[in-house]
Design a protein that fits this description.
The chain folds into two domains: about 120 residues, Phosphorylase Kinase, domain 1 (2-Layer Sandwich); about 200 residues, Aminoglycoside phosphotransferase (APH), C-terminal lobe (Aminoglycoside 3'-phosphotransferase, Chain: A, domain 2, Alpha-Beta Complex), CATH 3.90.1200. Helices cover about 45% and strands about 15% of the residues. The strands form three sheets. It has a five-stranded antiparallel sheet, with helices on one face. Strands 6-9 form a two-stranded antiparallel ribbon. A two-stranded antiparallel ribbon has the order 7-8. The longest helix has 24 residues. It comes from Deinococcus metalli. Keywords: Kinase, Transferase. This is Aminoglycoside phosphotransferase.
């Protein structure tokens, strides 16, 4: 049976031995390994006999190359040293490597593995407050300011985020039972609008390294301090994209989106963009997520497809008709 056909529990059970094997390369003794998330990637909390806890990430669905992961690790290390942001610090193996690969019999291929310092506190999630979103805006401004003066180390690289689907191959134009001709027409129209908007936005700003997945489930809050994690989607783009990606997950909470932008503006000048282009890039996030989900191997996410695909198309159709992207539109299939 293929990995994609296994249940969520069976998939995690297949990955757990590989995770324990990978941890043998690190200078600590594992006391307990607990699953945190099995989605696009798989993350475990690692409690050690020596005391500290860590986060182990296995790139199950990611297409990242060693050069791209190397760039991610280098940026995280530089952010930890150069700024006051709280970010996960990459941990070296005994031989000094910040990333290694493990062979997964379940997937019949090598998977990149990395270990990071532990970040305390719960995710902001759906309970984020206006004050917290202001901090998120300030954190985004700090990331962008640092990226403006930071350069990729030799031997590393990051993909351009200029295309509507960022650095992912286009799966939205392939045959799929859930993408009927009518739905595909909506998707194609949305892709064209996002492509045109990105062309205008990139002509107005200078690309730099972005987080590119800055939403409330990649942010933690502990004792009044924000932490930013999951830099696995980082790439080279323009700052407005980070803000639009954050906004996608906040809709329709307009007060939180306003606080995000106010927080950014309190630290540095907001990027220049037309509102219509901003809305297009927000809508573009729906295309990126739909495109990724169509070939995701995680059982729990694949089970969402029969509802997720038509709902995504309904939201995109509303965007094309109104010029505004929202999640609270009529005609959605309820969970």
């Amino acid at each position: 049976m293929s990995f994609a056909a296994l249940t969520q529990r069976a998939q995690v059970a297949r990955l757990r031995p590989s995770a324990l094997e990978a941890l043998r390369a690190y200078p600590f003794t594992v006391r307990r390994l607990r699953l945190l998330n099995h989605g696009f990637n798989t993350t475990f909390r690692v409690d050690t006999e020596e005391g500290p806890s860590y986060a182990l990430r296995i790139n199950v669905n990611s297409r990242r190359s060693p050069q791209q992961i190397g760039a991610e690790m280098a940026w995280l290390a530089a952010l930890a040293e150069d700024t006051d942001l709280c970010v996960p610090v990459p941990q070296p193996t005994r031989d000094g490597h910040l990333m290694r690969e493990l062979w997964s019999p379940a997937l019949d291929r090598a998977l990149p593995v990395a270990v990071f310092s532990w970040l305390p506190g719960p995710n902001l999630g759906a309970q984020a407050t206006p004050d917290q979103m202001r901090e998120v805006g300030r954190a985004a401004a700090t990331l962008h300011a640092h990226a403006r003066r930071w350069t990729l180390p030799a031997g590393t690289s990051l993909s351009s985020l200029r295309a509507p689907l960022m650095d992912s191959p286009n799966r939205l134009e392939r045959e799929h039972e859930l993408l009927t001709p009518e739905r595909r027409e909506v998707v194609s129209a949305a892709l064209a609008r996002v492509e045109a908007a990105l062309g205008r936005v990139y002509a107005q700003d200078t690309p730099r390294v972005l987080h590119a997945d800055l939403h409330n489930w990649n942010l933690k809050w502990s004792r009044g301090r924000l932490s930013v994690f999951d830099f696995d989607d980082s790439g080279v783009g323009v700052p407005m994209q980070d803000l639009a990606i954050s906004a996608y997950y906040l809709r329709p909470k307009e007060e939180l989106e306003a606080e995000l932008l106010e927080g950014y503006a309190s630290a540095t000048r907001l990027p220049t963009f037309a509102q219509a282009d901003y809305e297009a890039v927000v809508a573009g996030r729906a295309l990126v997520l739909l495109n990724d989900l169509l070939e995701n191997t995680t059982a729990e996410l694949r089970a969402l497809l029969p509802r997720y695909v038509p709902n995504s198309v309904t939201k995109l159709r509303h965007y094309l008709e109104t010029g505004v992207f929202r999640h609270d539109v009529q005609g959605l299939i309820p969970a």
